[in-house]
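Handout, section B. The chain below has 346 residues.
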Amino acid sequence: MSTIENSRFFPENSHFRANIDSPGPHERVFDQVIPISGRFDLEGAEPSNWRVQAWSNDTLIGETALLSSDPESQSGKESCGTNVARFRLLARFPQSIDAERDLTIRVTAMKNAGQIKHVIGDLSVRVVPSGLDRKHYGDVLQPTQKLLLHRENIYGSGPPVQEANPEGVRFVLEYLPRRSRVLDVGCGAGAYAPPLIAAGHTWLGLEVNPACHAILERRALPYRQSKPNEEVFPVENQEFDCAICVEVLEHIANPNRFLSEIARAIRQRAIFSVPNLEIIPYFASLQVVPWHLLEADHKNFFTRTSLHALLSQYFRRVEVFSYATHPVHTREGIPLHAHLFAIADK
Protein backbone atom coordinates (compact mmCIF):
# COMPACT_ATOMS: atom_id res chain seq x y z
CA MET A 1 0.00 0.00 0.00
CA SER A 2 1.38 3.39 -0.98
CA THR A 3 2.38 6.00 1.60
CA ILE A 4 1.35 9.59 0.91
CA GLU A 5 3.35 12.28 2.67
CA ASN A 6 1.79 15.73 2.93
CA SER A 7 2.52 17.70 6.10
CA ARG A 8 0.13 20.49 5.06
CA PHE A 9 -2.77 18.04 5.24
CA PHE A 10 -1.36 15.94 8.07
CA PRO A 11 0.24 18.23 10.63
CA GLU A 12 0.03 15.49 13.28
CA ASN A 13 0.95 12.51 11.10
CA SER A 14 2.60 13.14 7.74
CA HIS A 15 2.60 9.44 6.86
CA PHE A 16 -0.92 8.32 5.86
CA ARG A 17 -0.97 4.84 4.42
CA ALA A 18 -3.54 4.63 1.64
CA ASN A 19 -4.10 3.48 -1.90
CA ILE A 20 -6.55 4.17 -4.76
CA ASP A 21 -7.32 0.90 -6.55
CA SER A 22 -9.48 2.25 -9.38
CA PRO A 23 -9.69 4.01 -11.74
CA GLY A 24 -6.12 3.53 -12.83
CA PRO A 25 -3.83 6.42 -13.75
CA HIS A 26 -5.07 8.26 -16.88
CA GLU A 27 -7.94 5.82 -17.32
CA ARG A 28 -10.86 7.16 -19.38
CA VAL A 29 -14.10 7.67 -17.44
CA PHE A 30 -17.42 9.37 -18.19
CA ASP A 31 -18.10 12.61 -16.36
CA GLN A 32 -21.35 11.17 -14.93
CA VAL A 33 -20.01 7.69 -14.06
CA ILE A 34 -16.79 7.62 -12.03
CA PRO A 35 -16.51 4.53 -9.80
CA ILE A 36 -13.71 5.06 -7.27
CA SER A 37 -12.39 2.44 -4.86
CA GLY A 38 -9.41 2.13 -2.58
CA ARG A 39 -8.26 1.48 0.99
CA PHE A 40 -6.50 3.18 3.85
CA ASP A 41 -5.31 2.57 7.39
CA LEU A 42 -7.97 3.50 9.95
CA GLU A 43 -5.25 4.36 12.47
CA GLY A 44 -7.11 2.50 15.19
CA ALA A 45 -10.37 4.41 14.68
CA GLU A 46 -13.72 2.76 14.18
CA PRO A 47 -14.88 2.53 10.52
CA SER A 48 -18.08 4.41 11.37
CA ASN A 49 -16.05 7.50 12.27
CA TRP A 50 -14.64 8.03 8.76
CA ARG A 51 -15.97 9.69 5.64
CA VAL A 52 -14.30 9.41 2.22
CA GLN A 53 -14.85 12.18 -0.30
CA ALA A 54 -13.86 12.84 -3.93
CA TRP A 55 -13.15 16.39 -5.05
CA SER A 56 -12.58 18.21 -8.31
CA ASN A 57 -10.90 21.42 -7.21
CA ASP A 58 -13.29 22.63 -4.50
CA THR A 59 -16.33 20.76 -5.81
CA LEU A 60 -17.50 17.64 -4.01
CA ILE A 61 -18.32 15.02 -6.67
CA GLY A 62 -18.87 11.91 -4.52
CA GLU A 63 -18.64 10.57 -0.99
CA THR A 64 -19.26 7.58 1.23
CA ALA A 65 -19.39 6.90 4.96
CA LEU A 66 -19.52 3.13 4.47
CA LEU A 67 -16.24 1.29 4.90
CA SER A 68 -15.54 -2.44 4.88
CA SER A 69 -12.73 -4.49 6.35
CA ASP A 70 -9.91 -5.44 4.01
CA PRO A 71 -9.57 -9.27 4.00
CA GLU A 72 -5.90 -8.99 3.09
CA SER A 73 -5.09 -6.88 6.13
CA GLN A 74 -6.95 -9.27 8.39
CA SER A 75 -5.01 -12.19 7.00
CA GLY A 76 -1.73 -10.50 7.84
CA LYS A 77 -0.66 -9.92 4.23
CA GLU A 78 -1.07 -6.14 4.30
CA SER A 79 2.23 -4.40 5.04
CA CYS A 80 0.75 -1.21 6.51
CA GLY A 81 -0.99 -2.82 9.47
CA THR A 82 -4.01 -4.80 10.42
CA ASN A 83 -6.66 -2.05 10.50
CA VAL A 84 -7.14 -1.36 6.80
CA ALA A 85 -10.57 -0.48 5.42
CA ARG A 86 -11.85 -0.48 1.86
CA PHE A 87 -14.11 2.16 0.35
CA ARG A 88 -16.18 2.38 -2.80
CA LEU A 89 -18.08 5.38 -4.12
CA LEU A 90 -19.74 6.48 -7.33
CA ALA A 91 -18.81 10.03 -8.30
CA ARG A 92 -20.14 12.40 -10.95
CA PHE A 93 -19.56 15.97 -11.98
CA PRO A 94 -22.56 18.18 -11.10
CA GLN A 95 -22.31 19.78 -14.53
CA SER A 96 -21.46 17.85 -17.67
CA ILE A 97 -18.15 18.77 -19.25
CA ASP A 98 -18.13 20.00 -22.85
CA ALA A 99 -15.00 18.26 -24.14
CA GLU A 100 -12.72 15.36 -23.23
CA ARG A 101 -9.92 16.45 -20.94
CA ASP A 102 -7.40 15.38 -18.31
CA LEU A 103 -8.53 16.16 -14.77
CA THR A 104 -7.26 15.46 -11.29
CA ILE A 105 -9.61 14.10 -8.64
CA ARG A 106 -8.48 14.36 -5.02
CA VAL A 107 -9.74 11.62 -2.71
CA THR A 108 -9.74 12.47 0.99
CA ALA A 109 -10.63 10.76 4.25
CA MET A 110 -11.90 12.58 7.31
CA LYS A 111 -12.17 11.16 10.82
CA ASN A 112 -15.25 12.73 12.40
CA ALA A 113 -16.98 15.78 10.93
CA GLY A 114 -14.98 19.00 10.98
CA GLN A 115 -11.61 17.36 11.58
CA ILE A 116 -8.56 17.39 9.32
CA LYS A 117 -8.94 15.87 5.86
CA HIS A 118 -6.31 13.28 5.02
CA VAL A 119 -5.44 12.92 1.36
CA ILE A 120 -5.78 9.34 0.17
CA GLY A 121 -4.47 10.30 -3.25
CA ASP A 122 -4.66 12.53 -6.31
CA LEU A 123 -6.19 10.60 -9.18
CA SER A 124 -5.35 11.69 -12.75
CA VAL A 125 -8.06 10.55 -15.17
CA ARG A 126 -9.17 11.31 -18.71
CA VAL A 127 -12.76 12.52 -18.37
CA VAL A 128 -15.11 12.00 -21.33
CA PRO A 129 -18.40 13.92 -21.75
CA SER A 130 -21.36 11.59 -21.17
CA GLY A 131 -23.55 13.54 -23.58
CA LEU A 132 -26.70 12.10 -22.04
CA ASP A 133 -28.81 14.85 -23.60
CA ARG A 134 -27.86 13.41 -27.01
CA LYS A 135 -28.23 9.70 -26.19
CA HIS A 136 -31.29 7.45 -26.33
CA TYR A 137 -32.96 7.39 -22.90
CA GLY A 138 -30.43 9.96 -21.68
CA ASP A 139 -33.16 12.33 -20.55
CA VAL A 140 -34.91 9.54 -18.61
CA LEU A 141 -31.87 7.85 -17.06
CA GLN A 142 -29.96 10.81 -15.69
CA PRO A 143 -27.98 9.92 -12.52
CA THR A 144 -30.16 12.44 -10.67
CA GLN A 145 -33.41 10.67 -11.67
CA LYS A 146 -35.40 10.16 -8.45
CA LEU A 147 -38.56 8.62 -9.88
CA LEU A 148 -39.10 4.88 -9.68
CA LEU A 149 -39.26 3.93 -13.34
CA HIS A 150 -41.61 1.28 -14.72
CA ARG A 151 -41.76 -0.81 -17.85
CA GLU A 152 -43.68 1.84 -19.78
CA ASN A 153 -40.91 4.35 -19.04
CA ILE A 154 -38.23 2.14 -20.57
CA TYR A 155 -39.88 -0.01 -23.21
CA GLY A 156 -41.21 2.61 -25.60
CA SER A 157 -41.28 3.78 -29.19
CA GLY A 158 -38.94 6.44 -30.46
CA PRO A 159 -39.77 9.21 -32.89
CA PRO A 160 -40.51 8.25 -36.53
CA VAL A 161 -37.39 7.93 -38.65
CA GLN A 162 -37.28 10.31 -41.61
CA GLU A 163 -34.08 9.03 -43.20
CA ALA A 164 -33.76 5.35 -44.08
CA ASN A 165 -30.80 3.11 -43.28
CA PRO A 166 -28.49 3.40 -46.32
CA GLU A 167 -27.84 -0.36 -46.39
CA GLY A 168 -31.57 -1.05 -46.24
CA VAL A 169 -32.18 1.39 -49.10
CA ARG A 170 -29.48 -0.28 -51.18
CA PHE A 171 -31.05 -3.72 -50.78
CA VAL A 172 -34.58 -2.48 -51.42
CA LEU A 173 -33.48 -0.78 -54.64
CA GLU A 174 -31.46 -3.82 -55.66
CA TYR A 175 -34.43 -6.19 -55.38
CA LEU A 176 -37.24 -3.98 -56.66
CA PRO A 177 -38.03 -4.38 -60.36
CA ARG A 178 -37.37 -1.21 -62.34
CA ARG A 179 -39.97 1.59 -62.20
CA SER A 180 -42.29 -0.29 -59.90
CA ARG A 181 -45.45 1.02 -58.33
CA VAL A 182 -44.55 0.49 -54.67
CA LEU A 183 -46.82 0.34 -51.62
CA ASP A 184 -44.83 1.11 -48.46
CA VAL A 185 -46.84 -0.69 -45.76
CA GLY A 186 -46.38 0.95 -42.37
CA CYS A 187 -44.35 3.70 -43.99
CA GLY A 188 -43.99 5.80 -40.83
CA ALA A 189 -42.62 9.23 -41.72
CA GLY A 190 -41.83 8.13 -45.27
CA ALA A 191 -38.12 7.43 -44.88
CA TYR A 192 -37.98 5.25 -48.00
CA ALA A 193 -39.97 7.61 -50.22
CA PRO A 194 -37.21 10.00 -51.38
CA PRO A 195 -34.68 7.34 -52.44
CA LEU A 196 -37.31 5.21 -54.18
CA ILE A 197 -38.86 8.16 -55.99
CA ALA A 198 -35.39 9.37 -57.01
CA ALA A 199 -34.71 5.91 -58.46
CA GLY A 200 -37.76 6.14 -60.72
CA HIS A 201 -40.31 4.19 -58.66
CA THR A 202 -43.84 5.38 -57.90
CA TRP A 203 -44.23 5.40 -54.11
CA LEU A 204 -47.32 5.44 -51.91
CA GLY A 205 -47.28 5.13 -48.15
CA LEU A 206 -49.82 3.30 -46.01
CA GLU A 207 -49.79 4.39 -42.36
CA VAL A 208 -52.00 4.11 -39.26
CA ASN A 209 -50.26 6.59 -36.93
CA PRO A 210 -51.77 10.12 -36.94
CA ALA A 211 -48.44 11.62 -35.87
CA CYS A 212 -46.86 10.13 -38.99
CA HIS A 213 -49.74 11.43 -41.11
CA ALA A 214 -48.81 14.96 -40.05
CA ILE A 215 -45.16 14.39 -41.00
CA LEU A 216 -46.14 12.91 -44.37
CA GLU A 217 -48.33 15.94 -45.02
CA ARG A 218 -45.51 18.29 -44.13
CA ARG A 219 -43.11 16.39 -46.38
CA ALA A 220 -45.70 16.42 -49.20
CA LEU A 221 -45.47 12.65 -49.61
CA PRO A 222 -48.40 10.67 -51.03
CA TYR A 223 -50.06 8.30 -48.57
CA ARG A 224 -53.29 6.65 -47.52
CA GLN A 225 -54.58 6.35 -43.99
CA SER A 226 -55.36 2.99 -42.51
CA LYS A 227 -57.19 2.46 -39.24
CA PRO A 228 -56.14 0.44 -36.18
CA ASN A 229 -57.43 -3.14 -36.35
CA GLU A 230 -58.62 -2.56 -39.91
CA GLU A 231 -58.50 -5.94 -41.62
CA VAL A 232 -58.74 -4.69 -45.20
CA PHE A 233 -56.21 -2.24 -46.64
CA PRO A 234 -57.66 0.76 -48.52
CA VAL A 235 -56.21 -0.51 -51.82
CA GLU A 236 -57.52 -2.35 -54.86
CA ASN A 237 -56.55 -5.90 -55.80
CA GLN A 238 -53.10 -5.89 -57.45
CA GLU A 239 -53.07 -2.10 -57.50
CA PHE A 240 -49.30 -2.12 -56.97
CA ASP A 241 -46.40 -3.99 -58.50
CA CYS A 242 -44.53 -4.41 -55.21
CA ALA A 243 -44.71 -3.70 -51.52
CA ILE A 244 -42.06 -2.96 -48.94
CA CYS A 245 -42.63 -3.55 -45.24
CA VAL A 246 -39.61 -2.39 -43.26
CA GLU A 247 -39.49 -3.10 -39.50
CA VAL A 248 -43.30 -3.42 -39.32
CA LEU A 249 -44.19 -7.11 -39.29
CA GLU A 250 -42.91 -7.51 -35.72
CA HIS A 251 -45.58 -5.02 -34.56
CA ILE A 252 -48.60 -6.72 -36.13
CA ALA A 253 -51.05 -8.53 -33.82
CA ASN A 254 -52.55 -10.58 -36.67
CA PRO A 255 -49.67 -11.18 -39.10
CA ASN A 256 -51.63 -13.71 -41.17
CA ARG A 257 -54.39 -11.29 -42.11
CA PHE A 258 -51.81 -8.55 -42.60
CA LEU A 259 -49.75 -10.63 -45.02
CA SER A 260 -52.81 -11.76 -46.96
CA GLU A 261 -53.64 -8.09 -47.57
CA ILE A 262 -50.12 -7.35 -48.78
CA ALA A 263 -50.34 -10.29 -51.16
CA ARG A 264 -53.72 -9.07 -52.40
CA ALA A 265 -52.41 -5.56 -53.07
CA ILE A 266 -49.47 -6.50 -55.32
CA ARG A 267 -48.72 -8.30 -58.55
CA GLN A 268 -45.06 -9.26 -58.16
CA ARG A 269 -42.91 -8.94 -55.04
CA ALA A 270 -42.96 -7.96 -51.38
CA ILE A 271 -39.84 -7.04 -49.43
CA PHE A 272 -39.63 -7.34 -45.64
CA SER A 273 -37.15 -6.38 -42.94
CA VAL A 274 -37.45 -7.52 -39.30
CA PRO A 275 -35.13 -7.71 -36.25
CA ASN A 276 -32.97 -10.83 -36.23
CA LEU A 277 -33.58 -12.73 -32.98
CA GLU A 278 -30.98 -15.36 -33.85
CA ILE A 279 -28.17 -13.15 -32.58
CA ILE A 280 -29.31 -13.06 -28.93
CA PRO A 281 -27.54 -16.29 -27.78
CA TYR A 282 -24.24 -15.06 -29.24
CA PHE A 283 -24.35 -11.91 -27.11
CA ALA A 284 -25.60 -13.52 -23.89
CA SER A 285 -22.13 -13.89 -22.37
CA LEU A 286 -21.52 -10.18 -23.05
CA GLN A 287 -24.84 -9.29 -21.41
CA VAL A 288 -25.81 -7.41 -24.56
CA VAL A 289 -29.39 -7.32 -25.84
CA PRO A 290 -30.02 -5.79 -29.28
CA TRP A 291 -31.25 -2.25 -28.81
CA HIS A 292 -34.31 -2.76 -31.00
CA LEU A 293 -35.77 -5.22 -28.48
CA LEU A 294 -36.53 -2.31 -26.14
CA GLU A 295 -39.38 -1.44 -28.49
CA ALA A 296 -42.53 -1.87 -26.40
CA ASP A 297 -44.86 -2.73 -29.25
CA HIS A 298 -43.04 -5.78 -30.63
CA LYS A 299 -45.42 -8.72 -30.79
CA ASN A 300 -43.63 -11.12 -33.16
CA PHE A 301 -40.03 -12.33 -33.00
CA PHE A 302 -38.33 -14.03 -35.94
CA THR A 303 -35.58 -16.41 -36.86
CA ARG A 304 -34.77 -16.95 -40.53
CA THR A 305 -36.82 -20.16 -40.54
CA SER A 306 -39.90 -18.79 -38.78
CA LEU A 307 -39.94 -15.75 -41.09
CA HIS A 308 -39.61 -18.00 -44.14
CA ALA A 309 -42.38 -20.30 -42.91
CA LEU A 310 -44.80 -17.42 -42.26
CA LEU A 311 -44.20 -15.69 -45.59
CA SER A 312 -44.38 -18.96 -47.52
CA GLN A 313 -48.05 -19.25 -46.63
CA TYR A 314 -48.79 -16.24 -48.86
CA PHE A 315 -45.99 -16.13 -51.41
CA ARG A 316 -44.77 -18.65 -53.97
CA ARG A 317 -41.05 -18.12 -53.42
CA VAL A 318 -39.31 -16.69 -50.34
CA GLU A 319 -35.63 -15.99 -49.78
CA VAL A 320 -34.21 -14.72 -46.47
CA PHE A 321 -30.79 -13.31 -45.69
CA SER A 322 -29.34 -11.08 -42.95
CA TYR A 323 -27.90 -7.58 -43.06
CA ALA A 324 -26.88 -4.57 -40.92
CA THR A 325 -23.79 -5.55 -38.90
CA HIS A 326 -24.35 -5.12 -35.17
CA PRO A 327 -21.85 -2.62 -33.68
CA VAL A 328 -20.86 -5.16 -31.01
CA HIS A 329 -18.97 -8.27 -32.10
CA THR A 330 -19.30 -11.58 -30.27
CA ARG A 331 -16.82 -12.66 -27.60
CA GLU A 332 -15.09 -14.61 -30.38
CA GLY A 333 -14.71 -11.38 -32.38
CA ILE A 334 -17.22 -12.44 -35.05
CA PRO A 335 -19.61 -9.82 -36.49
CA LEU A 336 -23.33 -10.64 -36.74
CA HIS A 337 -26.24 -9.03 -38.55
CA ALA A 338 -29.02 -7.35 -36.56
CA HIS A 339 -31.82 -7.68 -39.15
CA LEU A 340 -33.36 -10.21 -41.51
CA PHE A 341 -34.25 -9.27 -45.07
CA ALA A 342 -36.83 -11.29 -47.00
CA ILE A 343 -37.86 -11.21 -50.67
CA ALA A 344 -41.25 -12.80 -51.28
CA ASP A 345 -42.56 -13.37 -54.82
CA LYS A 346 -46.15 -14.17 -55.79
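Note. Residues 1-14, 76-81 have pLDDT under 50 and may be disordered. Compare this with the example in section A.
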